[in-house]
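Before the break, one more example. Copy the sequence into your notebook; we will annotate it together after we see the structure.
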Amino acid sequence: MKLKGEHDADTEQGSYGAASLRAKTKIILAGVLMNLVIAVGLFSALALIGIPKLFDNQFTIKSDTKIMKNEVLVGQVEQDSPAQKAGITQKDVLVSINSSQSSTPILSADDLPNVTKIYNGQKVTVTVKRNNLASDIPLVVRSEQEVQQAKAEGKSVGYLGITPAQFTLQRSTWSAPIVGLGVTAQLTQMTVKGLGSMVAGIFSGKVKQATNQVAGPVGIFVIIKDGSSLGFRFVLMIMAVISLTLAIMNTLPIPALDGGRLFVTYIFRLTKKDLTPKLEDTIHGFGFAALMLLFILITIVDVKRFL
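Here is what the structure looks like once it is written out:
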C-alpha cells in the first residue's frame, strides 16, 4: 500500500508529505507498533496453548510453567553412519538405547553423546518413535577407536552419527501475556544483535558468514515446512517471528524502509536542506537496490543451505 503524497516535499492537504514531522513520526511508528502488538499477541497465545522452547534461557514464569512435551529428535543423520545404515531418519524421536545388559533412556539432546559413548563398539537396539509408532532398530555403535581416528583425520563424527535436537513444549496460564512480552523482548535483542553481526560481517568482507546468520524466503519456507510437521504451533511461531522482524526492520534507518524514510526526513530537517522528490527517490532507490542485493545473496545462501 502506498501513502498518499509520500514524498516529504508533497504539499497536498491530507497527504503524508504535508503532515508535520511529529505526525509523520506517529504514522511510521503506528505500523511498527501494529507488527509488535501482533507478535506479542501470537507469542502470548502460544504460551497459553503450548510454546516451543527455541533457546536455553527462553523467558517463562517457572511457577506457572508446565512441560507438555519433551522429546529428543533426530536433527541430521551423517552420511554412511551407523544411524543412516540402520534406517534412522530425520525427525525420528529418540527414546532409548538398549543392549543385552542395560537400557538407557535418551532424555536430552545434550546427553546423547555421553549415552552413545557408553555403548561404543557394541551391538544395540535404538528405540525410536516415527508417526507416533515405536520401533526397535538394531545397529552397531561406532567404537572409540573409530571416533578418535576420524577426529585425527580432521573429521567430526559421532558414535551413532546423529545430530540431535531438543523439542520442548511448555505451557503457561495466567502468565501467558507476560511470557509473550518476555519472549518478544528476548527475540528483539537477539535479532538486533544478529543484524549487527551481519552488517559487521559484510563490511569486513565476510559476506557468506554474515548472510548465514539470517534466512530469506527460501529459508522461511523450509522452516515452516519442517516445523508444520511438528504441529501448527511452529507455524504460529514463525508468523510471530516474521511480524516481530518487520517491526524491528521498520525502525532501522535503512533507506527504502519506513524507518529509513523517516531518518532521511529528520536528517534534511536538521541540516535545513531541501529534500526534493527526485533526491528522495534517488536515496531510497539506492537503498532498495542494496536491499535487493542482500536479498539475492541471502537467497543463494538459503538454497545452498536448505535445498
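DSSP finds ten helices and seven strands in the chain. Residues 277-306 form the longest helix (30 residues). Try to locate both features in your own notes.
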